[in-house]
Amino acid sequence: MFSYRAQGLLAIGIGAISLAACGTPDLATNLRPDGPPDVLAVMVQVDETSPNGGVPDEYATYCKTDDDLVPTVVGLPDQSVDFVCSTVDAPADHSKQVPEVTNADPMAWLARVMFDELLDPDIETLVGPGGGACADTDDACEGHITSTLPFTLKCGSPAVDIAYDGYYVPNGNNISWPVGPNLTVFPLDYDAIPTGTECSLSLNDNVVDKDGIAVPTDERGPWTFKTDVLKITATSPKKTAAGGTPPAVALTFKPSLTFNAKIDLTSIAAGTEITLHDDTADADVAFTIDYKLSAGGSPIPNIVSIIPGAPLTDAHTYSLTITATSTISDLAGGTLTQGDDLVLQFTGKA
Known about the structure:
Blueprint: E1 4-5, E2 20-21, E3 39-49, E4 56-63, E5 73-75, E6 81-83, E7 101-104, E8 111-115, E9 125-127, E10 142-144, E11 151-155, E12 160-161, E13 164-169, E14 182-187, E15 198-203, E16 223-227, E17 232-236, E18 248-249, E19 256-259, E20 274-278, E21 283-284, E22 287-293, E23 299-308, E24 317-322, E25 342-348
Parallel strand pairs: 7-16, 18-25
Antiparallel strand pairs: 1-2, 3-4, 3-8, 5-6, 8-14, 9-10, 11-12, 11-15, 13-14, 15-16, 17-19, 19-23, 20-21, 20-24, 22-23, 24-25
């Protein structure tokens, strides 16, 4: 039994992994085997989750017009429904077709080009579980496109070539279930691409179907999209609602800020980008800044901890401010986009 990979979006954060999928897919993927392989859609993974919050979401940065085979309504494993290449009857928060994706996930984006027929499988190299050739007896194999290079991927201004890997899925995708095979690409080094950067993707001459027919030249791109701007996605404590009571925290509490990209700690100056004030005593509080540590003690580079120089004082209220003029940046130099000061309040409690 030969095992095709059914790789999905969740694999990207920890490297490409694979799941066995034996036998004929439930949905035909060789939709239009006659003629050249047509590009139906180009999907980009964004920093949102699907409507029910189950899986990383994708938006269509390109949909072929006047083609009945473009993916329209698709069901997701979390029981939600997406209107991918159709805005007809689509709830506003479910429509995934946009003029250009502008919020590609800075730490995990991928782009997926969907076709109307099967491609020549030699477009990727299959690697067995032990790192050698993929055998028919293997339960699962990894696919790589670093040796075939079917894409031209450029990012930045001026645009530069980006090193990438990816894989070919002949039977759709095990996360978002489109009908039709697809080629997926993702950068080898996310940290080298600043947040808020425009990228372009195009197909090279070696993308052909099983008859050796190449993708038409007017369907090879380039397709453009942007990585999302640097922003704070979560805080601890949460921002107190207007008129609300600041949360009580332990005297050893360390506030934290979660970003959508890995942060350059040298870009954060205590007292400039971030301030900590004891409102009760009307005094500034000294603190240091570092990455938050995981339960296993490893730094989490997209979460910044604010570490007071001494324990908090019981019953004192504190204000942590991230200034509107902050120049906090990611590892590649993308800077925080923030219109106003962000103020987080909390009260020490013994």
